[in-house]
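tool=predict chain=A
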Amino acid sequence: MESRGSVPARPVAYEGVWRFTAPAVDASVPQARHAVRDLLKRQGVPVEDEILQGLLLIVSELVTNAVRHAALLSPELAVEVAIGAEWIRVSVEDNHPYRPTALVTDYGQTGGRGLLLVRETTAEAGGTCDVEHTAGGGKIIWAALPLKTQL
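tool=predict ok
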């Protein structure tokens, strides 16, 4: 039983952490996006549509980056989805040691702005994102977004 302002006595039914691996190939991009969307639907996560669309865009961009830039040293990537009572965090892990940074906006470029798009989409939703090194020398790029639009 809970009262206003208290922490729930037990986790909400949709809370949890799920992880899956995929080969670092182009076909993994839509597969990862669909897997995340289907997971959220199956778990009954009450995520607003605008947040969901941003989240799926982030998944696509992060998996695309791993496929394009890390596949040589990391033929497999991992996607993790962590869902809390009020937030969702997605991350993509690969074994390539290069730690990317978001590029400045250059409207003359036709590519190379994926992480900038991830940062802007995350910030717009009221979330946060970062890049971390793994113990094995690779990296994890993650974004955490609220389930509801921040006012």
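The two ends are 28 Å apart (CA to CA). The chain is about 35% helix and 25% strand.
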